Amino acid sequence: MHALGIPALFLNSSLSPGAYRAGMQSVRAGETRLLLVAPETLLLPHILELLSERQVDCLTIDEAHCISEWGHDFRPEYRQLAAVRRRFPKAVCLALTATATQRVRTDITSSLGFTGNNTFVASFNRPNLHIEVIPKQDPADQIERFLKRFRNQSGIIYCFSRKQVDELAEWLTRRGHSARPYHAGMDDDMRRRNQEAFIRDDVQIMVATIAFGMGINKPNVRFVIHHDLPKSIEGYYQEIGRAGRDGLAAHCLLLFSYADVAKLRYFIDQKQGDERRVAQQHMNAMVRYAEDDGQCRRKPLLNYFGENWTSTRCGNCDNCNNKPAVLQDMILPARSFLSRVLRPGGRMDKEDAGVQRLSEERSRCKAREGFVEGDEALFELLRAKRKQLADASGVPPYVVFSDRTLVEMATCFPQSEHSLGRISGVGHAKLRSYGSDFLKVICAYCGSKGIAEDFENAAKPPMPANRKRASMRAQLVGDAYNAGARIQDLMSRYDVQMETIMNHLDNYRAAGYVLRPAVELESETRISVDQKKQVLQAFSERGDAVLKPIFDKFGGTISYEDLKIIRFLRNTDRIP
């Protein structure tokens, strides 16, 4: 807030007595316009008395699902905020949450005395998150292989128990990863130091229980891993929601095993009455979601929150990107397996144990790893400058500029104060504070390489009002391609074949976007000039929406890949 020029203040027990008294005086004198406190602090008599001396214009409640007994993270202190609202009846009241079902929303509005027509629900869809669920087999090995794809990127790994957090954080550190633990069993100072190191990009990976994350706004979290099954869809959605808040691509991986289900059931069985029933309902919904490998992940996830997700494919989850599973009759193998499992002693040899292992390679989806759309070398220089300025000011790097803003700088190459002001996320206050430092980096880099400003090519093509919806992956690939990425670069980035990239670009073009000419593709086909002419003639006669008739016309002598390349060149005006 200070970086944006807003006179804000927080009050909590981390402040020294002198700083706390100075903060209260600032509120009393009317110098503070925005006060941030936890519910427990707000309910203290001296804080309520302090606020009664001023006119409170707005009371905003974040994480409002904590008000509801049906919410996944109910806290009694939140329930008492209804009394605070009654104490300041003239203040506008705003309750915000990202994880509330219809039942929870109804409970919130009832508790706070809201009227129904003042409830506003935005989409729960986060299209930049790639969602994936795989069988948990060797979690440490699976996590380490996953982390190799996200070197120098920030991420969170959630574990069920404190012991698991400590062991995994220690193991990752021994393996050379930059990781710290976080859980409620640690002393306050250690938790604070680890959290601060993560937020300031001094540590890349936070291994934590669900105690970590509430109120954390680190925009450049590129991945979230669930080492264990979450207790509810609400908790899962909230935790993956900490990834990709800058709008850039992020990966959410859940390791699923039935041993985790049994563990959760054991703890739920210790509860009583409604609390036990609600916990069972939450867990059952989470298990159904994890087990579902037949439909888009977003459909059950969004439907759970009451949003009607009508699309059959999102293009950015494991179920949408994987090939359909080949169904087989497993009755006889299952009988054989069970007969050996249930024999006296109940032991399985290595061969038997192999029967229950699922193929992680059917399930794994290639992620977009630490993506940077523009000039990656310039992006890294800008990121280093951001870290230097943030450390000097004692703030997290994202307070200076987000990754999204740095990506745009590394794409458009602004070389004047006016041009830098055109970049998203560069307001007047930040332009005054940081503009000259970043312009020096950009101008020095561009001067050494003869690079001019490039706002025109970086801008997205116009979107027709009646365009169809492009899949998220097609949108990302198309935008990257128009920003200058080559076909081969995109193949390497996504670790896919050329045909897959061509399919995404065709999807992008079909949605109404204009694609830049693909000069580099002209040498990729393996057919003669005469064959190209024959294919173009066939396209003119029969159209190019469906390739099979063209493929059949030439008796299979021209591959689908070559046909797609020629079609692409034709539609981007590289050939007549």
- Rg on CA atoms, Å: 27 Å
How would you write the strand order of the largest sheet? 5-10-9-6-8-7
Strand residue content: 5-15%
CATH architecture of the largest domain: 3-Layer(aba) Sandwich
How far do the termini sit from each other?
A: 55 Å
Report the major sheet: 6 strands, parallel
Can you describe what's shown?
By secondary structure, this protein is of the alpha/beta class. The chain has 4 domains: 8-118, P-loop containing nucleotide triphosphate hydrolases (Rossmann fold), CATH 3.40.50; 129-322, P-loop containing nucleotide triphosphate hydrolases (Rossmann fold), CATH 3.40.50; 376-457, DNA polymerase, domain 1 (Orthogonal Bundle); 521-576. The chain has 29 helices and 10 strands. The strands form 3 sheets. Strands 5-10-9-6-8-7 form a 6-stranded parallel β-sheet, sandwiched between helices. A two-stranded parallel sheet has the order 1-2. Strands 3-4 form a two-stranded parallel sheet. Helix 11 (258-268) packs antiparallel against helix 12, helix 18 packs antiparallel against helix 22 and helix 27 packs across helix 29. The longest helix has 22 residues, at 428-449. 33% of the residues are buried. Residues 338-361, 363-372 and 459-468 have low confidence and may be disordered.
